[in-house]
Amino acid sequence: MAESAPGTPAASAPVTPGTPGGPLFSAHRIDSMSYDRKSMPRCKCLPVTAPTWGEPHSCFTDFPAPDVSLTRKLGAEFVGTFILIFAAAAGPIVNQKYSGAESLIGNAACAGLAVMIIILSTGHISGAHLNPSLTIAFAALRHFPWKQVPAYIAAQVSGSICASFVLKGVFHPFLSGGVTVPSVNYGQAFALEFLITFNLLFVVTAVATDTRAVGELAGIAVGATVMLNILVAGPSSGGSMNPVRTLGPAVAAGNYKAIWIYLLAPTLGALAGAGTYTLVKLREEEVEEPRQVRSFRR
């Protein structure tokens, strides 16, 4: 092998993740359920006047560069929501069909484990929102671009409806078990759905937007929160926390009882939960040595 000339450093390949002696993960990480405003696509500018050398030109208007990865994000949201609704609604359906075989703990585990595995598998692609209330809350707090909200919600709604009709075909005529309807009065159901969604979004906002939170364990933290909420509210309100968790099975079963509760309460609870964590979140100047970013990789 030829030796390098004296005084000339030998060329070497850059250290990559997984290389012995190199970092296990790359240093640059971005929150998966939010977005980095500095990394958003830059705009293409139409100059009004031709600038002279070294001087900036003035722009007539800006044309936003297309986000080529949006299709992949929507695909991940559709598949993730499909898996979530299939698992979360299948538990109660199986429980109904086989006379309590799943139990409340089994129903909670179906939803919580589904959320966990989806976050771990698709969080780096779309952020694994899976919930219109979460998407709206993140957009309201500037963690997500408003222009992508309609597309995300469309993907989530379509994934939920498709999963619900698959369940209808597989478990007919036991689909009614997967519909979330209140067994308490409407006021109590509304309060429960608001509070459990508040809990969920408080945790989600922490692990998704704060680099000092649990980070890489976010899937476990969010899945555990979903399980806890269903154990608390499942027998009373159904433990939806998600408009599409109720909407898809309601469309497939034709049962729209008190559906307004499951559309409005989770959205208000999500805004309150995300906003509350934002208020109590530690600021950079309040931490002596910020820890390394450990949030979802995207």
Explain what this protein looks like in three dimensions.
By secondary structure, this protein is mostly helical. It has one domain (70-280): Glycerol uptake facilitator protein, CATH 1.20.1080. It has helices spanning 70-97, 103-126, 132-140, 149-171, 186-209, 218-237, 243-253, 259-280, and strands spanning 43-47, 59-64. It has a two-stranded antiparallel sheet. It starts with 42 loop residues before the first strand and ends in an 18-residue tail after the last helix. Mean pLDDT is 80; it is low at 1-5, 8-32, 34-55, 57-68 and 293-298. Pfam families: MIP. It is a multi-pass membrane protein. It is found in: Membrane. Residues 1-22 are annotated as: Disordered. The chain crosses the membrane at residues 74-93, 105-128, 187-208, 220-239, 259-280.
A few lines on this structure:
With about 300 residues, the chain is mainly α. The chain has helices at about 70-95, 105-125, 130-140, 150-170, 185-210, 220-235, 245-255, 260-280, and strands at about 45, 60-65.
Summarize the SSE layout with pairings.
Elements: E1 43-47, E2 59-64, H1 70-97, H2 103-126, H3 132-140, H4 149-171, H5 186-209, H6 218-237, H7 243-253, H8 259-280
Antiparallel strand pairs: 1-2
Helix pairs in contact: 1-2, 1-4, 1-7, 2-6, 3-4, 3-8, 4-7, 5-6, 5-8, 7-8
